[in-house]
Queue: 2 jobs
Job 1
Amino acid sequence: MFLADCHTHSLCSPDSEIPMVAMGQKAYEYGLTSLTLTDHCDLLSLEGQPTLTYDWEPVRKERKSLLDAFGARLDLPFGIELGMGFLYPDQTRVILSEPGLDFVIGSSHNLSLEAGGRDFFCLDYTTLADCYAALDNYFQSMLALAAAPEFYDVVGHIIYPLRYMKGNYPQPPSVDRYRDEIFEICRLAAESGKGIEINTWKGQTLGEWIPVLKLFKEAGGEFITVGSDAHAPAPIGKGIREAYQIMQDCGFRYVANYHERKPDMHRL
Ligand SMILES: [Zn+2]
Ligand SMILES: [Zn+2]
């Protein structure tokens, strides 16, 4: 069975310490067909400072070790998770000119510049009002991201901030009220020939994707990748099979895997 984890991180991301080779080892043992490392390149820092250059050298070095060890046994597309590239188009074009890049996930990890630019990871979600203030800001950024298709192949984790909203709320925060924004994000991606991803967040986020997939289908979307967002070996592949089933239940027959910034389609 074709099984691809299209969203993973290594020590080339600030929030992981794992060599790419160790990620490859686990992917091979797990039985993946394909593993894409998509290390972070965020144009805003955790605290919202612009970081407008990217040092590819550590990635090239790690990638070489990975290819030497597993290149004959695993498909290993060369990916990146690009945070808010649309804010700085000229600098982003330079970053994405790296030769050999196969796959770009476009993500928004930070509040807008006007709102201070801090990472959603750092915010306070004590009350439901805190959650919805963050989500209001987030979906405006995601609309701007989706409208700049040059800077992504798939829109990353459309429901990203939800993963941090684990407070003691009367009812859990939901993206139901953002239906129109999510549909528009899906439509902008679909009409540009781009896709979305199902991010299983280490196998913990699955059912939440059903309404998003339905909107993507309604918007005429075709290309969907699936990734665990593993930052260590253990969660690699988690939730991928389940996500494939959810895709089928929502009427999709193929899953995408990217090479040279183009989707290869695999029958589910
Ligand atoms: Zn991310
Ligand atoms: Zn990620």
Job 2
Amino acid sequence: MYAPQQNNVTQTLIKLDKLCKSYHLDDANGKTMSTQVLFDVALNIQQGEFVAIMGHSGSGKSTLMNILGCLDTPTSGSYWLAERNVAALSNDELAYIRNRHIGFVFQGFNLLKRMTALDNVATPLLYAGINRSNSRQRALEQLQRTGLEKFAMHHPNQLSGGQQQRVAISRALINQPSLLLADEPTGNLDSQTSREIMTLFEQLNQQQGLTIVLVTHEEDIAAYAKRLIRLKDGVVVYDENHNVMNKPSPTQ
Ligand SMILES: Nc1ncnc2c1ncn2[C@@H]1O[C@H](COP(=O)(O)OP(=O)(O)OP(=O)(O)O)[C@@H](O)[C@H]1O
Ligand SMILES: [Mg+2]
């Protein structure tokens, strides 16, 4: 069901219809205030796409990503993931999908500080019930694929920002997800390291058919994606496949 696209047959991985999200917060007088942050979002994302989401701070990008990642639920409207209605899934099914089928990468890397790079990468396998030695072996192989095996026994504070993000990406990939969600993955990195991380995403998309949805504030980072979505005040105001001719090379 979640296999990457094959034989040029595209399958819809994500389908959002009239999706709305409101947050409810108590004000200083104890009165509940409701703020709507997403308005009638309709989106189809096919397996194998590489999508960038842009928009001003507060436009609802992370809110949308949290819903796509099954970390939060819409207030109304529907979300179909691999043809399954997410609202109809049990908590156990949602946890299974988050663990096995979705990889998350964040701006702040979100690595566990007390663990080595190897154990950080192995953690999702342990949650999936795989024993420690097999988990570590697979984690080491994943670190080799991302060029980090010599840092396997380093703790996060012994790694550069770019290396930490590569560890976080390795962790996100360890269960071979079909969907990678990255919320400002280069937000804490310099421009050269950002280009290296984006080149890695590009390879994962092109060579493995990994579906990637990425949030960024930077146009040159968004240029690595094949499709650009712009959010303004919770509304999709732009959604186009865009020209990747002007993408900077990793060495520039
Ligand atoms: N858990 C929450 N409870 C209440 N309001 C929230 C919550 N999370 C986000 N918001 C509000 O929803 C709006 C959209 O926030 P969101 O984090 O999705 O924006 P964003 O586009 O990711 O911004 P940024 O670029 O700064 O990361 C903001 O006004 C924010 O204050
Ligand atoms: Mg955000």
